[in-house]
C-alpha cells in the first residue's frame, strides 16, 4: 500500500512510495538499489503564518515580500529575470505576432543559410541550448545580482574541499587536482564567442535529411552546348510518350524543363539519355546516346564524390538502372542500393511532406498534394526495385513493409486526386512483387522442412496466388500495361515453378507432370517474346526491350534446354519431333537476339545471350539425335508427332492474353550442368565455358542462388 510519507527519491519523481513503515525501504528503492531516505512530516501551521497580514494592501504585502538589499541597489521585480514562457499562456500574443502571415502558424520555416542553421542533428541541438542560456551567471530563480554576493569565492578552500573527489579525474590520482584547477581556470575566463560558427564549420551543422543538389553551370546541358533546345524538346516528347509509362516515376505537371534544370542535372540528363535510346537506330540518335552517356557518367561521379542527395537524384538512379547499358550491368544493384540509402537519408519513408520539399522556393509552383504524391510515387518505385532484386537473389528485401506499400493503401492510392495515368500500374506492380516474394518465401520455407515437394500442391499454390492478383488488378490496366504485366506474371510463374527443381536438374532431372509443366511454361514465355524482339507486336516498341527482359528471356530459354537435356532418354513419351519443335522455337529466339535492331547499349547484351543460346540449342540437338537409336534421316521428319509430348502450337496453358514487354529485372546467367544421355551431353566444363556471361557483363548472378535454401527460418 502507498506510504503516508513518501521517501525523497519517490517524492522527486512524484511516484507512489509503497512500504508499510517509514523505517522500511520502499519497493522502488529496493528494486533500483538506491538509498531510501525520508524526512518526517511537519504538522501544524507554517511558521510565520499567524502574524501574516490578512488585508489585500499591495504596499504592505510588497514590503513584506521584498528582500533586503544593499543601499543603492536596483529593486528586483517579483518575477524571475529569466523564465521560459509556456506556449499555452501566449496564444493571444502569438496570434497578433503572425496575423499578417496566415501560413506561418502551420508551415515551418525553410532552412536556408541566411535564416541560420536548422537544428536537426545533435551537435546543432547542443549548440542551440548553449546559445540560449541566460546571460546572468546566477540561477534563474535567484533575485540577487553578482555584486550582491557577500561570500567571495575562496579558491584555496574550494580545492581543499574537493581534493579527494578530484582523484578520479586523471589516471594518476595525484594529477586529478591539476585537472580540476585547469577546468576552474577555464570556467572563470571571459567568454570570447567560442560558440560562434567559424568558416568551414557550416557542414557540421547541416541537416542530414536536406537535399544537396547537383546544380552548377558546368553540369547544365544547354549551358555547355551539349544539346540544342530543339533536341531537348524532341527527346522530352519521346520520354513522356514512350518511356514514362514504363518507368512510372515522373509527373509531367511537375517535371518541366525549368524545374529539371533548377533541381537536378543528373535527372535531366537521365531523362534525355533514356529517350535517346528509344529512338530508331541512326547516326544522329547514336551520337545523342554517346554524348549523353559520357555526360551522365561524369555527373554520377560528381554525385558520389561530393555526397549529393535529393529525391531527383533517387529518381535518376532508378531511371538509369531500368535502361542500364551493357558496360554497367555489374552496377545494377549498386545504383538501386544507393537510391534506397539516399531515400532513407532524406526520410522519404517517414514523412512524405518533408520540410525542404514543401517550402523550398524551387517547388513553390507545385501544389502541396502533388508534392506529396511525387514523394510517395518515388518511394513505391524504390520498394518495387527492392523486392524485384530480392526475388532474383532469393533474399529478404532490405526495406520493411510500411503502410504506404500495404494492399489496403495500394487499392486506393491510384484513385486519389492529382494522379497520373501510370499510377495504377505502379500499384499493381508493387502488389505483384509482394505476391511473388510471399510465394517464394513460403516455397523456400517448405523446402527446408520437407525433403520432397509434391508438385501438384506446389503448382496449385502458385497458380492460386497469381490468379488472385490477376483478377484484382488486370482489368484496371491499359492494354499496353496488360501486355507487360502478363509477361511478368508468366515469367514469374516459371521462376517459382523451378525453385524446388533447378538445383537438382544435373543429378535427378525432372519427370512426369513437373517436367511437362515447367517446360511448357518456359517455352510459352519464349515463343511469345519473339514478336516483341522482331518489332511485330502492336503497341510494343524499342522501349520495351530492356536489359531486364533480355536476361529473363535468356535464362528461361536456357532452363528449357536444361530440362530437355536432363530428361531420361528411355521415356517413351519423348519424341524426336517434339524436341525438334521446341529447339526450333528456341533457335528462332536466339536468332532474333543476335540481330536485334537496337542501340549498342542493349544490342551487346542481346548478342551475347543470343549466340550462347544458339550454341546451346545445337548441342542439345546433337545429343538428342545421337540418342535416337536406329532412326534414319527420313525418320527425323515425321509428320505425326507423339500425342503424349508437350507440344505448343500457339495455345497457352494458363490464362492471359498476348505477352508484352516491360519489366522485371532478372539477373542470372542460367549456368548449370545437365546430365544428358549421349557423348555430346552437357558437362560441367561445357557449362562453365559456354553459359557464363560474366566475362562480358560482369554481374549475372545464378538465378536461384538464394539465402533460404538451407538456413531460412521465418
TrEMBL record:
Residues 56-71, 108-123 have a biased composition (Polar residues). Residues 45-152, 632-653 are annotated as: Disordered. GO terms for cellular component: nucleus. GO terms for molecular function: DNA-binding transcription factor activity, RNA polymerase II-specific; transcription cis-regulatory region binding; zinc ion binding. The keyword rRNA-binding does not apply. PROSITE patterns: ZN2_CY6_FUNGAL_1, ZN2_CY6_FUNGAL_2. GO terms for biological process: DNA-templated transcription. The keyword DNA-binding applies. InterPro entries: prtT, XnlR_reg_dom, Zn2-C6_fun-type_DNA-bd_sf, Zn2Cys6_DnaBD. It is found in: Nucleus. Residues 87-96 have a biased composition (Basic residues). Keywords: DNA-binding, Metal-binding, Nucleus, Transcription, Transcription regulation. PANTHER family: FINGER DOMAIN PROTEIN, PUTATIVE-RELATED, TRANSCRIPTION FACTOR DOMAIN-CONTAINING PROTEIN. This is Uncharacterized protein.
Amino acid at each position: 500500500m502507498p506510504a503516508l510519507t513518501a521517501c525523497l527519491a519517490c517524492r522527486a519523481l512524484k511516484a507512489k512510495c509503497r512500504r508499510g513503515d517509514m523505517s522500511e525501504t520502499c519497493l522502488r528503492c529496493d528494486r533500483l538499489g538506491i538509498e531510501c531516505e525520508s524526512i518526517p512530516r511537519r504538522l501544524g501551521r507554517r511558521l510565520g503564518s499567524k502574524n501574516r497580514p490578512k488585508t489585500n494592501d499591495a504596499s504592505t504585502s510588497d514590503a513584506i515580500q521584498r528582500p533586503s538589499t544593499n543601499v543603492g541597489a536596483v529593486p528586483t521585480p517579483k518575477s524571475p529575470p529569466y523564465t521560459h514562457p509556456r506556449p499555452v499562456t501566449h496564444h493571444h500574443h502569438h496570434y497578433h505576432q503572425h496575423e499578417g502571415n496566415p501560413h506561418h502558424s502551420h508551415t515551418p520555416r525553410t532552412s536556408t543559410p541566411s535564416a541560420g542553421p536548422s537544428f536537426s542533428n545533435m551537435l546543432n541541438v547542443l549548440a542551440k541550448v548553449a546559445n540560449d542560456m541566460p546571460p546572468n551567471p546566477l540561477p534563474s530563480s535567484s533575485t540577487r545580482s553578482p555584486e550582491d554576493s557577500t561570500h567571495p569565492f575562496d579558491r584555496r578552500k574550494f580545492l581543499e574541499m574537493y581534493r579527494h573527489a578530484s582523484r578520479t579525474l586523471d589516471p594518476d590520482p595525484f594529477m586529478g587536482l591539476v585537472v580540476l584547477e585547469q577546468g576552474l581556470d577555464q570556467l572563470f575566463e571571459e567568454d570570447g564567442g567560442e560558440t560562434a560558427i567559424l568558416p568551414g564549420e557550416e557542414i557540421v551543422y547541416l541537416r542530414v535529411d536536406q537535399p544537396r543538389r547537383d546544380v552548377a553551370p558546368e553540369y547544365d546541358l544547354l549551358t555547355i552546348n551539349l544539346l540544342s533546345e530543339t533536341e531537348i524538346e524532341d527527346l522530352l516528347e519521346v520520354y513522356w510518350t514512350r518511356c514514362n509509362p514504363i518507368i512510372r516515376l515522373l509527373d509531367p505537371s511537375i517535371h518541366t524543363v525549368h524545374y529539371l534544370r533548377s533541381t537536378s542535372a543528373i535527372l535531366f540528363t537521365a531523362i534525355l539519355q533514356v529517350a535517346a535510346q528509344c529512338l530508331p537506330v541512326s547516326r544522329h540518335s547514336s551520337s545523342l546516346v554517346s554524348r549523353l552517356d559520357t555526360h551522365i557518367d561524369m555527373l554520377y561521379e560528381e554525385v558520389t564524390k561530393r555526397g549529393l542527395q535529393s529525391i531527383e537524384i533517387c529518381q535518376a538512379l532508378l531511371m538509369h538502372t531500368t535502361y542500364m547499358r551493357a558496360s554497367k550491368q555489374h552496377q545494377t544493384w549498386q545504383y538501386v542500393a544507393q537510391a534506397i540509402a539516399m531515400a532513407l537519408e532524406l526520410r522519404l519513408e517517414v514523412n512524405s511532406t518533408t520540410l525542404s520539399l514543401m517550402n523550398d522556393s524551387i517547388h513553390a509552383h507545385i501544389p502541396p498534394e502533388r508534392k506529396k504524391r511525387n514523394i510517395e510515387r518515388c518511394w513505391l518505385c524504390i520498394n518495387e526495385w527492392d523486392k524485384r532484386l530480392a526475388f532474383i537473389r532469393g533474399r529478404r528485401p532490405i526495406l520493411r513493409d510500411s503502410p504506404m506499400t500495404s494492399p489496403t493503401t495500394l487499392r486506393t492510392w491510384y484513385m486519389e486526386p492529382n494522379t497520373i495515368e501510370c499510377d495504377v500500374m505502379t500499384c499493381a506492380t508493387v502488389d505483384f512483387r509482394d505476391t511473388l516474394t510471399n510465394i517464394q518465401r513460403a516455397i523456400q520455407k517448405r523446402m527446408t522442412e520437407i525433403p520432397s515437394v509434391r508438385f501438384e500442391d506446389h503448382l496449385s499454390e502458385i497458380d492460386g496466388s497469381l490468379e488472385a492478383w490477376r483478377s484484382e488488378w488486370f482489368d484496371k490496366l491499359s492494354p499496353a500495361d496488360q501486355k507487360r504485366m502478363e509477361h511478368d506474371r508468366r515469367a514469374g510463374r516459371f521462376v517459382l515453378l523451378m525453385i524446388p527443381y533447378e538445383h537438382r536438374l544435373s543429378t535427378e532431372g525432372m519427370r512426369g507432370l513437373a517436367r511437362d509443366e515447367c517446360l511448357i511454361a518456359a517455352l510459352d514465355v519464349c515463343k511469345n517474346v519473339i514478336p516483341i524482339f522482331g518489332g511485330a507486336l502492336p503497341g510494343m516498341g524499342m522501349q520495351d526491350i530492356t536489359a531486364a527482359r533480355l536476361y529473363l528471356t535468356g535464362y528461361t530459354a536456357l532452363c528449357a534446354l536444361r530440362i530437355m537435356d536432363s530428361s531420361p532418354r528411355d521415356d517413351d513419351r519423348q519424341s524426336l519431333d517434339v524436341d525438334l519443335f521446341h529447339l526450333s522455337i528456341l533457335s528462332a529466339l536466339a536468332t532474333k537476339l543476335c540481330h536485334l535492331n537496337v542501340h549498342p547499349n542493349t544490342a551487346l547484351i542481346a548478342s551475347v545471350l543470343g549466340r550462347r543460346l544458339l550454341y546451346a540449342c545445337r548441342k542439345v540437338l546433337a545429343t538428342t539425335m545421337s540418342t535416337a537409336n536406329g532412326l534414319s534421316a527420313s525418320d527425323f521428319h515425321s509428320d505425326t508427332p507423339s500425342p503424349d509430348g508437350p507440344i505448343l502450337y500457339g495455345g497457352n496453358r494458363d490464362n492471359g492474353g498476348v505477352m508484352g514487354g516491360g519489366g522485371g529485372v532478372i539477373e542470372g546467367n542460367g549456368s548449370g550442368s545437365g546430365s544428358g544421355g549421349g557423348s555430346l551431353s552437357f558437362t560441367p566444363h561445357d557449362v562453365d565455358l559456354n553459359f557464363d556471361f560474366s566475362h562480358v557483363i560482369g554481374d549475372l548472378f545464378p538465378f536461384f542462388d538464394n539465402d533460404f535454401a538451407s538456413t531460412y527460418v521465418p
